[in-house]
Protein 1
Amino acid sequence: MNAPEKLNAFSAQEAALIEGKRAVHDNVSERALRLFERVRSSGQHPRISLERAVYFTESFKETEGQPIVLRWAKALLHTTRNLPITIFEDELIVGRPNNFFGKHGIIYPELDGSIMIDAVAAFRQAHAEGKKDAVIITDEDERVIRDVLAPYWTGRDFTPNFIKALPEEARNFTFGPDKTNIFRQTMVIMCTSNMRSSQNWVIDHGKLLERGLKGIREEARARLAELTSPFDLTQKAPFLEAVIITCDALSTWAKRYSEKAAEMAASEKDPQRKAELLEIADVCAWVPENPCRTFRDAIQAQWFSQCFSRLEEMIGGDINQGRMDQYLWPYYRADLEAGRLTEGQATELFHCLWINMMQYLQLNLSPAAAAGREGFSHHETVTIGGQTRDGEDATNELSYVLLESTRGLRTSYPELSARIHSNTPDRFLHAVVEANKDGKGSPKIINDEHVVPFYLAHGIDMADALDYAVSGCMESRLPNIETHKTGNSAVNYGSIIEMTLRDGRVKIWGDHQFGLRTGDPRTWTSFEQVWDAFKAQTENVVKNIMIQGDTARKLKPRYFAAPYASMMHDLASKACMDLQRHDEVIPGTLDLTCIDGVGGFATAIDSLVAIKTLIFDEKKLTWDELLDALECNWDGKEAIRQMCLNAPKFGNGDEWIDKLGKEMYRISLDYVHKNPKTNGTPTIVRIIPITFHVPSGRVTMATPTGRPAGEYLSEGISPTHGMDVKGPTVTMNSMAKATAIPYKEKGPNLVNMKFAPANIAGEAGTRRLMQIIRTWCNLKLWHVQFNVINRDTLLAAQKDPEKYRDLVVRIAGYCAYFVELTPMQQAEILARTEEAA
């Protein structure tokens, strides 16, 4: 192999690892490299961070009986007055919830304080066993949890009260027959309402940059002074008072950093670092209290905003960054023109921001949540590209700076997303493809040609629809219009197939009756009977998911408030309504409740196809032969398993299979369409696995696809692993046909694709991948993302994890280090179809 061929055989990430380079590209400063290496050397396992929990607890003890939005604001103020203030060597962007450098996760006892003691034991055991998702808990941490946090929050937190409030059937699906269990889940229905205070969320960070806390506070004071009605004084005044206190809380925190930086500068001997500390002191004294003056101000204020949001509540899917290339663009352009900033300096500031982000990890006390978010999933999505509110292409020079800033560091932070539309310039799409060819799975790509019509169908004006930001895995948000924050529940399609074939029972849970009694398949004489049973089981699952969601929405206002998120939301702020008041409709807003499919969409399609083909069409198998083979997990039944493996599979352009997938998807959409929420707002159905298709597979028996019991299910709307064999265009056409249902309730769906670097090498390869993305755009699929990596590299990483410790791969709507995943998740990535471009 000559030199050019050898170069083409590896992605840029792989080549950098093989050659021992400190970065993937040379646009990373020494400062950024030192900070990155310090984070990576802090250890694989994150530390638990209890400071926020302790200060919230102290405040809540003093404010019992007051309106919850006021209690929350006062707790935020108490927290920011008392958090330790630390500025570490080389830091330019400051702010953290503790006094240590490295990976950490905040604990939220108001969410699930009742399970904290169980979580301590589980974390301790995981760490002792060397598990990859272990969390470090010190003896002092355990003492604080046992003596300070658990005694106050047990019974006052959301999780046990939510589970108690569930009707028996809805509780049974998720938490099983043991009524004392609030710690684990069955994964038959996966519920996230008890895992997070909020769904993924996007703050209008630009509002803070433009107005400053001073402007927001002054407006709240003026509105408060105008209230005269007794009803306004009881319903609106607490919200406005909370806004004022919340502004004070964030301003207090920033000013403490200013004072700390000035104090450190006074004794600093190094002239360069002294100047940096003085600049930090100046910036933090000014923002976020006042409108931003410079790009540096804007980056610091933005970091305070997202960090403060994490102090406020547990945002599952994280606080997302919005359209950074839009709201930061005026500051970047002005500083460039004034000679105050260079592109290199801007890139270094972004690197400092990304390294700050990579130190915060979401820690879940629920084992089910942790199992479905392997590698500590993160979704602090930065949106670039797309269109302006006038419908013009929105890319600018900052779009390219942001894109390039994510390529050099060997980290998966931030979670970058590029919005693509039919008129996206070739230059931008080319840059997006070149970044993906680095092999780190970034950026993921979102389709304006699907998302914008989705919002139009929900009555949103065109200008607002064009201004959406990507959020979470691959969802979208309108930061000043959408309001729904309650965690959702999700469908395990593998369990639905199992319940269809076992009269509603699930084998791994001791044949416990979860689903409906739909009969013994051995008595069925037509595929229509199979379909009717599958449909009944699916509708029953969706019904109970909606019951879980409605229960959570009604309860949440008693347990949560979000004054910062609410004051940053135009319509919530105007109505003086906290966003956690879920069962009330804020005028002019869009309240989209969600149902997810987290595993097995293609597994279910292929199972139904195998049954139809092998039992009814070709009559190669009897019901007894198939069901017995499934029950014994193919033991001694390899010939039958091979028949199932070789039955037709979704993703290969077979129209009848695509149509069957479409009808399967339609079951859920029909049901939610006929059953809107009591306030008239819709529930959307989306298929987003994160990594829940792995634990969902662990509880699912063997399936008629030929899959063994306990193995991962198919992910997203992608075909079953390795079963799409006709190329990416045919695969995308199948996925488009199977999801092309004209319901406004049809939400985002996730698509993963994998290429070997040699298949898309050079300029010709870049152009081929660009054309694939253009085809995807025309097909109006919502989302696509790529792994560009060699199978041999993944296998080598399994054998020598230390050498490949910084190897980043695309998982679902996020990226992570490959060696930090469980063997099952690693195997799932290895098994994904390798496309030929």
Protein 2
Amino acid sequence: MSRSLRHIRLNPIQSFKPALPIISLNKRYYSTDIESLKKQSDSTETDNSVNATGVIDKSSNEVLLYYSFSSSRNIIKQYLVRIFSSIPFTRKYNEETFKDKVLEISSPLPTSSKITELVPLTRDSGAFVKFQFPPTESARSFINEVRSNVNKNDSKRLDNIFKKVLNSVWNRSPKVYSVKGIPWIEDLRRFPSAKIGIKFEGNPLTEEELYVLFRRYGLIDDIKADPGESYILFHDVRSAICAKHCITGMVLDNGKTTLHIRYVPIQKKYFIVEFISNHTRIAIPIILALLATFAVLIFDPIREFFIQYKITHSSHSLDHYKQNKWFRLIYIPYKNLINMVTSSYDYIDTQFHEVTGLKMEDDSCDTDAQSMHDLKQENNMFWKERFDKSKQLTMWILENIDTFIVVKGPQGSGKEEFVLDHTLLNNDKLSKKILVLECDELSKARSENNLIGNTASQLGYFPVFTWTNSISQFVDLGVQGLTGQKSGLAETKENQIKNMFSLSTQAIRHICEEDYSKYVKSVERRNKKLPDEEKIEILKLEEFLSQNPDSKPIIVVSKYARRADIPSNDFIYPLIADWASGLIQNNIAHVIFLTADVGSIQHLNEALPNQVFKNISLSDASMTSSKQYVCDVLKVKDTTTLDTCLEPLGGRMLDLQAFIRRIKSGENPEQAITEMISQAAEIISTVFLNEHLSNSNNSDNNWNPAQVWLIMKLLSNKDEINFAEIIKSPLFKKSKETMDTLSTLEKYDLISLRRDKGVLSKIVTGRPLYKAAFENIISDLRIWKLYETNYLTELINLEVAKIQKFENELTTIYQISKIDGRIDYLTKKIEASNTKIVAYEKEIVDIASYKAEQKPHSFLGLKF
């Protein structure tokens, strides 16, 4: 030991008793001229309180104590104390509140003693209290008496073991310390820390001296002595606060050493961050795996719930709860209030019409009512021809034997209405669990995010974060740069869609299991009331689902096709087929496919190669039903005018509804059918006869305008043409390309292919209205000249290509050896092709000079 602390005994339990030369209770030593500075500033200021100067003065018969009321471990409290203090209606700890608390825990005090000044420190959960003690008593005895009273009162407060345990945990016992230095009361943004820094003005102290000086305020974890600045790490923040307030400004060794204390933020060592930064190849994949696992654990149950909600919407919709009396008690006043607010602007108009006797009509309501009436008429008339098929579909589902059903029919034939409105929704058992997938919404998505969003919307998959796809790609790129390998965070859209359907399978299974659990509980309750010999055997899940078809959801896959509109989305249809086959094989759902593309059956055959599908084919309605339907909706009895107009529509529901809308809008029947035929002709000319679209990069547009023109000419004069007849044309010589072209045209509803025992035999018009459109296009001389010339030009090109091929072969034969038979054969072929070219060119010249009355009526020997 050296200097003024050489007589101190290093016993941490013993009180600190400094030698007299170190510090005087009646005189303060300032190593700086702070006292002179304060006196100079006080002389010109009116406010010289501690709040303005930060320094507490005391006279010879006063003693300054620091009260610590509770622990200050709450860091949030330290940072937000200023905000809370400015918020109204919050509890305020002012000087009077602290004064009452100090008197309560320090009583009984000597009669002649009193509190002369109190400075609360809300941030530190403490206060500086200046007492005036009696002249007959020393400062030391007064301080000891105050400490003794505080300890006794605290012991009385902790009168049971529960309070003692809580007090030991939260450290809320008040403590009193004598202020040995010159406290600096500041409100800077320097928040308490368990670590304090001691700067020495003068001679520094050793570790032993620092320990003796600071141990009384709490346990010390570490001491680092340094001549410039020493550091002490306390076990808790409360000890550091008390030490700073009581020791800072303390003068030792007759003014040769002054201590200045500040809080030092503790720099914590983050081992996890260090591990991640030093081992990126290991840490980043682990973090990504944990994040993925966390996302699955959190979001997948939520998504599964929403999928189940979408499937069981009929039993969990808002309308289901509107019948509840408590719901009505809340909902009806709310609805009236909303209506009053939103329709308040109509008050003047309403009053005006009431006064004038005029009645306001809501066109939208009339339209809705009329639509409902039309639907009823449609149900009664238009669909009676399909009643037997609807009954058959219902029976197949209730039989519950391999319910993999395919409903085929041309576009606009009402497949969705037939399955949903007239079959499933009319049956109370089958209408409770239905999921409808609109495949065209998926196939038309032009971006990955749109595809994922549309799929999620169809399945009820929520929440879905499409924006993470873009972010994951950048993260994957960054991880690859850091670790040299991809993280796998950026999944392909195929995998993401597959995961959505996998989760949907789980949701469908849980729906079945919910009904099964209800069945099990019901049987168990009944068995409790029955004797042992009469107890009912509980079926297994598979047996239960086989006997209860209404417990399985019905999946309706609408607009299923062979190819997607966007080639990059072609994977969707095989994926849906595989998903549906899994549902059937697991016996957890009924699946109904609605398709207008016969080629799409190939996907289903590949998904279920050993499954025999149940098929229902829908055709257009008969003319009798079509006329009756239109007459009932339009409320007309005279069908003379309608007979001619309805014949081109042919019973196609889509066109009949469009015709009815035109009549209601004010057009007469002749006008309506003429406009419809013109629009259909324009569609055909734009889509099928457009050379630019046919030669586009879209692989689905694999037809040639000349091929379409030939089919149009043949079908405009016949209801059907034989496939053997169409392949006579040079444009349809290649069998594989011909089948692809015809299948594509069937997909777009231009034609319909009829098969006999699986073999293509007949070709008919895909949409009845298109037959009239064909005639409309061909009857226009200008259009006929254009496309007929293009058709003949295409035939000439084919013959020219043949001649070039034959000529090349002849050249090769002459170079090798002479084969007279082959040379004669090729020569005749060349002459035949040349004769055809001459005939085609002559016909092109004749077409240019044709007038309307001279237009030929034969083509390739076929009479028109």
Protein 3
Amino acid sequence: MKAGSNFLNAVSAVALSASMVVTGGSVATLVSASSAEAAVVRSIQVRGADRVSADTVRANISIKPGQNFSNADIDESVRRLYATGYFSDVRISVSGGALVVVVNENQLINAVVINGNRKIKDDKLEAVLRSRPLGPYSETTIEADKQAIRDAYAAIGRSDATVTTQTHPIGNGRVNLAFVVDEGDRTKISQINFVGNEAYSNSRLRSVILTKKSNFLSFLTRKDVYSEEKLRADEEALRQFYFNNGYADFRVISSEAVLDEASNEYVVTFTVEEGQRYNFGDVNVESTVEGLDSEELTGLIESRPGKVYRAKDVQDTMSEISQRVAAKGYPFARVTPRGNRDLGNGTIAVDYLVDQGERAYVERIEIRGNTRTRDYVIRREFDIGEGDAFNQEVIARAKRRLEALGYFSSVNITTAPGSEADRVVVIVDVQDQSTGSFGIGAGYETGSDGGFKLEASIEEKNFLGRGQYIRLAAGGGKDSRDYSLSFTEPYFLGYRLAAGFDIFKNEDDSEDYYSVDSQGFTLRVTAPITEDLSTTFRYNYTKLDYSSSNLAELSTPYVNVVQGSPWVRSSISHSLTFDTIDDRTLPREGIFAQVTQEFAGLGGDSDYYKISGKARYFHTLLEDADVIGSLSVGGGHMWGTGSDTKVFDQFTLSSSDIRGFESGGIGPRARKTGMSGYDSLGGTTYFTVSAEASFPLPLLPRDSGFRGALFVDAGTLYGNDVNAGSDTVVGTDMSLRASVGASIIWASPFGPLRFDYAVPFKKESFDETQRFKFGIATQF
């Protein structure tokens, strides 16, 4: 009786009053305590639970028999039970010495189907749904699922898609749930307007942003899909464009998209204020850190006086100085640029202040939003880790690297206070995007070996979310077949070493008197030296198998090859690459230069040493007209290191090196006595030079991706170490070839395509020419 009396006293000390709480659309009756004294119950009774066991209900409440509880515990228990999603109503009360939990169960979902969807497959939509078979039927969850489906359709340009649901009871508290989709029409973008721009035309600014007007190819490119996120990215792209062209005061006043519901088309308008254009004024480095010499740091400055002001130059200078200072043992040093505008002269003087920043350490790097890419793929782009000195410039450099990967549609890095005053939490928010592609390319070459050539490829830049690159391609034409497989691991053994391999097999029956099959592989590893300079080592193995139906028709060098096949070439090579190109798709500024040396003789039948190089410089000639100029040079020389140089080891020039000539169409050639045709021998030395200007094609919208080009090519291939026997050899002298021509370039959804028409105006009588060339465009 004493225990019962104590319980009654405890209950009597608590003034119980009924209160109504709305949770998830249901009403629950709770017990509210008006006294600070807590109650105790001996047991917990569960009523109304049929499919869900009573033990499951008890496990999801915070109140336990024999323990004190209060109104806050009752509130928490109700929230927990609703959070399971299994109940539409929850009521908790005290009766005698028992806590009574009365629940009404939600129906269970037996099956989930999606109807009416044609543009997006079931598996893509099912991935965004929270309603699952054998899960609870929840109106709140279903409304969220309907919105998720609408968002998926908005992402492909169908913002007016609607979603309804249908339910079909099947008994025992179970229902089948169907999402019914009306996909609607594609929402298009009819106009993209700019207000306030004077320095650059609307068409030039449209080429800067990601959002594009709708055209006949939009159903493939999806570049006319409107979204708020893309609009914010467009604002940032405009800012970077103006900041890097001297307009340091530029700002986007507003950006808006207005939907015309009658036509289902958006009109996008950017209102901007350009401001004045500046050049760099005086540039200095000041250091308040003891032991750091400002004069030494001055040599790292990218922003030179008199040059057009570019925010990128300031950013690069900060990065260079920060790395140099950290390497000297000052991990907490901070580099801050200070700009002083001279409106009268139109200059900005920049002082880089190096001072001792606050002593702070990275407590942890928290990564959020990556649904596919592994955490370690993101972490390895940071030059700092947990416990290292916090440096804002290192964080900014990591952001640029993550953006350059192409794995994410957005990258945002922020900081938050850590557990201690000198601790910082780095928060990385990313959003994965599609990194796989399927490409189909076509080309056509005229001449005796010409004809249509097709290639299909599958490419994945972020294989299994591990950051690995893989590409599988197959192609061929009338007399050829090509197969290749490439794989690259960008961080081999945890180091910043890009290791990979290439496997290939080629079958070529295009020659009149012989055919050749080649197969082999390359093992490679690339290491960065600086942000712009890298070095690559390769091992190359190639097996060549020649065959001929009529040896009598072949010249002496080829007779020797065919009789001795198969031949093996085993070599190692080393390359240095300097790359400051601003855009791999359409370069407007920068240099790409590469020098390669190769030594063959590690077994096999080839013995030689080669050195070759190429460089291409891009520069925008007319900014608003978007006229881009480029100048390229190349050259190479080989030395035979064995007793006999093979005909397939010498240099040959392709139809892209000097347009207007066939691949292998110039250089030393051999003719068998009594025969009329010449066979290409290749050469020991070559030089090429090319000048080109590209521009948007008139009368076509720039968003279509069509550009024109005018070019002049020149070069030579000469020298011969192949023993031609009694055959007549011509073209061994340093005779110049040159051509002039025009091109049409299309950045198609299937890859960049190019049509060249070139007219040789300096050639030799035995050269093989080719005026038309159509195929996949290559820049480097």
Protein 4
Amino acid sequence: MIQRRAFLLASAAILTLESTGLARPIGKANIGPGRKLRIAGARAPIEILEDRMGIPHIRAKSKHDAFFGQGYMVARDRLFQIDFAYRRELGRMAEVFGPRFVAADRAARLFQYHGDIDAELRALPAEVLECARGYVAGVNARIAELEADPTLLPLEYRILGITPLHWDVRDLVRVRSDGMGNVDDEVRRAQLQARGLLHLDQFMDPLRPAWQFTVPEGLDCAAVSEADLGVLLDAARPLPFDDGQLAFSSYDRELDRIDLAGQGSNAWTVAGSRTATGRPILANDPHLGIGGASPRHISHLTAPGLDVIGGGQPGLPGIMQGHTDRFAFGRTNFHIDQTDLFILRTRDDDPQQYWHDGKWKRFETVEEEIAVKGAPPQRVVLRYAEGRPIVSEDPARHRAVAFASVSLLSGANMRFAMIAINLARDWASLREAFKIHVSPTNIHYADVDGNTGWHTVGFVPKRPRHDGLFPAPGDGSYDWTGILKVEEMPNIYNPKQGWFASANEMNLPADYPYKERKISFSWSDPFRHDRVAEVLSAQPRHRIEDSIALQHDVQSLPARALMKLLPAKPSPAAAPAAQLLRRWNCAIEADSAAALLYELVMPELSSGFRELVIPPAARDLIPSVNLSEMLRLLAAPDKRLGADPVAARDALVDKALAAGWAKAVELRGPDPAGWRWGDLHQVVIAHPLSKLPAIAAAFPRIDGGRSGGDGTTVMARGVNPARGYNVTHGASYLLVADVGAWDNSRVLLLPGQSADPRSPHYRDFYPDWLAGNMQPLWFSKTAVDANAVSRTVLAPAD
């Protein structure tokens, strides 16, 4: 499964803060009037105070100008990051990088919204649209500054020989795609069904809640193959920045799937009845990719009727995780099946027609011209059926495949949703904002009046005749009939328990009518959630310090499960490993030898388990096994492990222990006294285009940091051994909010606000992040004024 997550594929760079004069640390006693800049697009003077961490506190006279300030500051700190993503999403890479990028551009344009953009804009709340226009104007104002003095452009532009694109608010509607969703899972299941091996899918992607497979009537599973994914596979591949073939030849989609499946987020909300102060506490740490561009940028936006602070996604207006003056809000990924493949029958004598609703229809077509650097423009024809992109065609078999995604529906304007959330004042108005929130999300809420709430949001397609687990015939009989209303989504308000948490686990309430409202049957393993629940349920007087400690908790529930499986009489080769692990407290600490051994044993165990339970006929379709399912079967072995399942289990564990010990000796030497998990598990951040020598030279790696944790601990520091042992994903942004006493809130951001190596904020958060030393998130005017180190005024140009 390729999870639907906000993607940030480009690195970022920003001109030095000193060179602009905007963030020169002059000390609060000497701030004075600061610097005044004339900026086109601002409607009134905008004051920006920056604190010592480079967080801008934007004070405007209107909401439009507050978002203008956010767009301007994000462009100042992260222009290349947001510009690169914008160019890729618009399908305008070939015009600056050449013919190799035409395929990526065609794929990007295929998944754009081609409906009535003006109608979409008119349907948005007027205030939300006005704020979005302000954000776009702020980005463009910064770009205009750099055009006036190109020497101040971020370093990438000179190296790559390109210039930034001007933004258009219409593109916030046009750009919709969020990946292939889980349609690759649909293809895999159809192939397993065709081989009579569908029952084995449970080992890769267990159905939660329990469910029985039903193949849609009329679907020929034997005809389904990966070729049906077509353009979706092209869109998932890395961009060919090296020699054009190297990027493709080294690409491994299964490793990407493992990386993405391991990502997630944590959030918990504790009511005042269970805190030491009587005020609610809300904690959130989104787990996204670590190793490239930071996926969050912190801002504070203030204007009449608006006061919000927290982490935003660069290039997306608004704050994603933070708090207003009235309530705190956090988010984790909720699982919604938002995509489907529809198999179309095309006409024998005219492959441009397909059968739907009892008649032949002609594909809708959109012609696009792709500008290509150093070559003539290329014209491409994009085909659609019922508004769904055609991702593959096979005229010889009278077959085409359409990709259905909620992101392409009318009204699916996710890029405006954060603004609506930021403008809300309470639970009721927040639920109104959820109506344009497309992405699957658990929203956490806690307000100054002591109320707490959890609400799942995101567009859920109504499938009257199928469950989304297989491709479906595209004749119209399996078409979607709408989306669930916000009120139909799972939610709670002021639960009696006094706390709740989400960590991407299957969290549908026991009484939720999931058979009628099919949301998803694919969820993350519950390890992180279960550990959070274990801790919170034992803390009747929870404190801010407790939330900070829990965000950095490295206790491993899978490790506990493994301890119960250690053989009583291990073989001589496995005995040293068993002895070391038996003395261990199951904490994945950076300085732990046992943690290192455990991390080397588990891949061996998983590999051996797969070889034991997955027959050769299915191994190409099941390249890895689900950790929870593996541990469950090993704890209660049955005939799937063989004629003597207990003996087979014990032999499997013994072999993994011996292999893990041998691997540890190979990597760290024969003496376990010198083994440390953190020596292998490090935090390395490099520019995503660092394969280009000039980029690598201009943007030195940020490294040297050792880390504990893994992908199953609350302090998620994901690792994919097939790609090495460095941290691949985790919480680069962490927030703990003291609701109502906002200046007590704490935050971390990896590695810093800026992505320019000349900036003091390029890596200033890095050591604090590694140490878990969370920093104040100043909010009140008094606190912000007292901790400001620079002042800038953006004044209208006319």
